[in-house]
Automatic annotation (TrEMBL):
This is Domain of uncharacterized function (DUF3560). Pfam families: DUF3560 (PF12083). InterPro entries: DUF3560. It comes from Klebsiella pneumoniae.
Length: 192
């Protein structure tokens, strides 16, 4: 056991290990737990303002405060420096968003191909024959084509959205690393 982690023995002798970190890059406190938290501990950190970050598999507080620091010290014993930098985390996030974008683009292309195959079955300019026995099937077919086009457009827009989110994530990380931004953040922390 390292001196910066604390272990708590539960009733069934499974040890829970906590690790607390602080990142001056984004002024956030993080709590890493080896096991699922019990209700009492979860309530304690939830009241302190920590939220679960599922992709990072940790609890994070939006900003450092003395109260949040005290909660982490009571659980982990010590607060270490964060291993990953803000830029690393933002790159991971941008990669995730790019994957989402790629998946939506592929789905959009598939939906468009399906619509093309449906539309190719109908001769160009073929009207729906009102009162004919084929009217109901022709209207259903036209509805499938229309809904397929809407789905393809929606998926394409989602792909663009996720690509923009990926780019914004990287822009945000670069902004946070600017010297003037760091200086203002340090001044704000010192003022608190």
């Amino acid at each position: 056991m390292t001196p910066t982690t604390a272990q708590i023995m539960t009733e069934n002798t499974v040890s829970q290990t906590y690790r607390a970190t602080y990142s001056p890059d984004d002024n956030k406190l993080r709590l890493y737990a080896s096991l699922r938290l019990d209700e009492e501990t979860y309530s304690l950190i939830n009241k302190a303002g920590f939220r679960w970050a599922p992709k990072q598999k940790l609890f994070v507080a939006p900003a450092w405060t003395p109260g949040r620091e005290d909660v982490l010290l009571s659980l982990a014993g010590d607060i270490e420096d964060e291993d990953s930098t803000l830029f690393d985390r933002q790159e991971q996030r941008a990669g995730r968003f790019s994957d989402y974008s790629d998946r939506r683009a592929v789905e959009s292309e598939q939906a468009l191909a399906h619509v093309d195959s449906l539309a190719s079955a109908v001769p160009l300019g073929q009207p729906i024959l009102v009162g004919h026995h084929s009217e109901r099937r022709a209207r259903r077919h036209a509805q499938k084509i229309e809904s397929g086009m809407k789905r393809a457009v929606m998926l394409f827009e989602r792909a663009e959205y996720w690509e923009q989110r990926a780019q914004a994530s990287l822009r945000h990380a670069k902004y946070k690393e600017r010297p003037d931004v760091r200086y203002r953040r340090i001044k704000k922390i010192e003022a608190e």
